[in-house]
């Protein structure tokens, strides 16, 4: 069957003013067990690419600049 | 040997699959036994933050500490909690290794709670004995492990997902095939011995929230290890003894009675009353929990609102900073303050996990599976109720057994056709541009698990479940993956489907009820010791289906008297006459 995309909210927010991914930092991307974070190819900032989050928090805790914030996924709140 | 583009072949002595808890300790103990061995630790995520203890752990739930309990007492408690179906030699090996492992972890820098005299501050949560050691500062466990891996020069390979084990003509394991989760490059690893430590099958049932990743277990632990062991010919034991846990509703994290119980918290019904004597997780405890939900006295709650402010602050600090630190945010969002109201709990979806129940790949007291050269440890190996400390102890045992095996055994070859066939299986979803996504196929598989396989288990329903799951399996021919990340999910889905099939077949095989709620069969409501006081072993038949056999329970090393065996069946607190 043909595929479509649909919008969904994601629970991880990155403060782009604090994120230093453009300097080569990939800590949040590296530590995510589910590999759902990525560095945006154009903006050069970290972002949540997939809505597959365990709200476990290494991305937030290990971020050297405090740029990452983990919320509880909407369906669980 | 080359298999085409995008395939690299490497050689090692010991391959460890899974970098969470048991895997790193297997690698560490193998290296400590023989520093000359080449040990490769393969991890689907990143060893720094992978596995069930990604953020740390708030306590040891099964510490056998001299002065508080003996290994014999522990073996007896676990035997009773599992209705007698245990391989006691393996439980004893764990129990004897428990205290030395605590001392070892302590020396490496893991922090345990101690009293003023520097003694471990043990707490009682189990029905009979004292086995809980709090870790209020247990958030550094992964860092400590990682340092030790580096010190011992274990080779760590992140973001490679093992998909199948390689076996030689004589049936022994001789390596594995893995695929990179970001590039889909293949890695063929030749090894003398393989340690499987890939965690629980925690993405089997669908959480009540409907969120696929809102699981109790780290969702990376989706049963890959169970599936790989099955396809390599290993026997899996007592899978019908499901993992079902009492959790915070919707958040699906531990409530956690092990932390709060010793400080005065307890599980209560909607009247705020205790209904179980003991909050230690067992099938019998879960049965009473389920009955309370069904009987109109639910919801069930974690009750803390009667405690003193300083006690609640302590509990908050421990629970909101270790194992699942987002928990504080969840409660904040709901307006739940432990001081003012009880915390709503619920029964979890089903899974396989020997860490908490007894559903695992069969291992003996040396961590050996039924496949020569293949070892298993942690949540996916059959040592019951082994928790984090069990993953460490049994992982260590697996590492030492693997090192001994390597001293005697050569590196053996395998038929390269295995690699070619596996590449074709793995890559098939990438060759399609339309069809069904891994996401929707996973949702459907897990919804079917809830509808048809979760207890109370009804024969007619489980048979329908098997039919529906067979249809999903047929749909694999239309599974689509558009990039390496989706391919990882597509491969995980296939592990989940294998585990769902095993869950159904195993549950139908054992025609009795046992382990409280874990294997409550409505059509066979009583335990039947005459026919079923045995392990049920599930394995792949020559046609690819699931075969079964009974394995007798070995003579006990710690005798248990008949009148002691029923202790866990007397958990309900009698209601006083009004």
Describe this structure in words.
- The complex is a heterodimer of chains A (77) and B (578).
- Chain A has 77 residues and is of the alpha+beta class.
- Chain A has a single domain, classed as Alpha-Beta Plaits (2-Layer Sandwich), CATH 3.30.70.
- Chain A has 2 helices and 4 strands, in the order βαββαβ.
- A two-stranded antiparallel ribbon of chain A has the order 1-4.
- In chain B, the strands form 6 sheets. Chain B has a 5-stranded parallel β-sheet with strand order 6-3-2-10-17, covered by helices on one side. Chain B has a 4-stranded mixed β-sheet with strand order 1-9-8-7.
- In chain B, helix 1 packs parallel to helix 4, helix 5 packs across helix 14 and helix 12 runs antiparallel to helix 13.
- The N and C termini of chain B lie far apart (79 Å).
- Helices cover 34% and strands 15% of the residues of chain B.
- Chain B is globular, with a radius of gyration of 23 Å.
- Chain B contains 16 helices and 21 strands.
- With 578 residues, chain B is of the alpha/beta class.
- Classes of the chains: A alpha+beta (77), B alpha/beta (578).
- At the A-B interface, helix 2 of A face helix 9, strand 18 and helix 14 of B.
Q: What is the strand and helix layout of this fold?
A:
The complex is a heterodimer of chains A (about 80) and B (about 575).
Chain A: E1 12-14, H1 27-31, E2 37-39, E3 46-48, H2 58-62, E4 68-70
Antiparallel strand pairs in A: 1-4, 2-3
Chain B: E1 7-11, E2 14-17, H1 22-33, E3 39-42, E4 59-60, H2 71-81, H3 88-108, E5 133-134, H4 141-151, E6 155-157, E7 160-167, E8 173-180, E9 186-190, E10 193-196, H5 224-231, E11 236-237, E12 246-248, H6 257-260, E13 266-268, H7 283-294, E14 300-303, H8 309-319, H9 327-334, E15 343-347, E16 360-361, E17 374-376, H10 387-408, H11 417-427, E18 436-437, H12 438-453, H13 459-475, E19 479-480, H14 484-509, H15 529-532, E20 534-540, E21 546-552, H16 562-565
Parallel strand pairs in B: 1-9, 2-3, 2-10, 3-6, 10-17, 18-19
Antiparallel strand pairs in B: 4-5, 7-8, 8-9, 11-16, 11-20, 12-15, 13-14, 14-15, 20-21
């Amino acid at each position: 069957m043909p595929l479509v995309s649909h919008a969904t909210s994601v629970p991880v927010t990155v403060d782009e003013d604090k994120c230093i991914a453009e300097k080569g930092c990939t800590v949040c991307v590296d530590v995510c067990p589910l590999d759902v974070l990525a560095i945006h190819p154009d903006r050069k900032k970290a972002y949540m690419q997939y809505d597959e989050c365990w709200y476990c928090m290494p991305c937030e805790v290990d971020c050297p600049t405090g740029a990452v914030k983990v919320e509880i996924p909407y369906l669980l709140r | 040997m080359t298999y085409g583009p995008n395939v690299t072949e490497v050689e090692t002595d010991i391959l460890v699959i899974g970098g969470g808890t048991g895997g790193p300790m297997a690698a560490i103990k193998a290296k400590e036994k023989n520093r000359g061995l080449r040990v490769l630790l393969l991890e689907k995520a990143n060893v720094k933050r992978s596995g069930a203890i990604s953020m740390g752990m708030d306590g040891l739930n099964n510490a056998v500490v001299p002065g508080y309990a003996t290994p014999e007492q522990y073996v007896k408690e676990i035997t009773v909690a599992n209705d007698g179906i245990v391989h006691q030699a393996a439980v004893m090996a764990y129990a004897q290794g428990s205290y030395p492992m605590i001392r070892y972890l302590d020396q490496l820098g893991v922090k345990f709670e101690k009293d003023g005299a520097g003694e471990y501050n043990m707490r009682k949560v189990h029905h009979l004995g004292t086995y809980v050691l709090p870790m209020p500062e247990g958030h550094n466990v992964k860092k400590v492990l990682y340092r030790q891996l580096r010190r011992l020069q274990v080779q760590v390979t992140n973001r490679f997902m093992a998909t199948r084990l390689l076996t030689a003509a004589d049936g022994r394991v001789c390596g594995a095939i893995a695929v990179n989760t970001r590039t889909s490059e293949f890695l063929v690893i030749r090894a003398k011995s393989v340690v499987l430590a890939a965690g629980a099958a925690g993405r089997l049932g669908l959480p009540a929230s409907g969120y696929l990743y809102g699981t109790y277990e780290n969702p990376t632990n989706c049963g890959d290890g169970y599936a790989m062991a099955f396809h390599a010919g290993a026997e899996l034991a007592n899978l019908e003894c499901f993992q079902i846990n009492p959790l915070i509703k919707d958040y699906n994290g531990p409530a956690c009675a092990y932390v709060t119980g010793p400080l005065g918290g307890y599980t209560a019904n909607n009247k705020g009353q205790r209904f179980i004597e003991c909050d230690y997780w067992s099938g019998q405890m879960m049965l009473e929990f389920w009955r309370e939900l069904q009987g109109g006295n639910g919801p069930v709650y974690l009750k803390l609102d009667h405690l003193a402010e300083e006690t609640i602050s302590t509990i908050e600090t421990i629970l909101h900073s270790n194992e699942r630190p987002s928990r504080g945010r969840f409660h904040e969002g709901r307006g739940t303050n432990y001081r003012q109201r009880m915390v709503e709990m619920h029964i979890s979806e089903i899974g396989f996990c020997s860490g908490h129940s007894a559903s695992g790949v069969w291992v003996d007291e040396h961590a050996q599976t039924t496949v020569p050269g293949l070892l298993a440890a942690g949540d996916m190996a059959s040592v019951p109720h082994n928790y984090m400390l069990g993953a460490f102890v049994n992982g260590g045992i697996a590492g030492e057994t693997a090192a001994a095996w390597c001293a005697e055994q050569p590196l053996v070859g395998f038929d390269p056709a295995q690699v070619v066939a596996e590449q074709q299986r793995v890559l098939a979803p990438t060759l399609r541009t339309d069809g069904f996504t891994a996401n929707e196929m996973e949702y459907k598989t897990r919804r079917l698990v809830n509808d048809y396989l979760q207890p109370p288990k009804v024969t007619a329903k489980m048979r329908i479940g098997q039919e529906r799951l067979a249809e999903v399996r047929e749909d694999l021919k239309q599974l689509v993956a558009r990039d390496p990340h989706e391919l990882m999910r597509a491969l995980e889905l296939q592990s989940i489907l294998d585990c769902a099939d095993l869950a159904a077949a195993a549950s139908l095989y054992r025609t009795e009820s046992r382990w409280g709620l874990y294997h409550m069969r409505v059509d066979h409501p009583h335990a039947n010791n005459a026919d079923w006081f045995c392990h049920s072993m599930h394995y792949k038949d020559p046609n690819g289906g699931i075969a079964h056999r009974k394995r007798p329970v070995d003579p006990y090393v710690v005798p248990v008297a008949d009148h002691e065996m029923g202790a866990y069946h007397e958990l309900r607190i009698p209601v006083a006459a009004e």
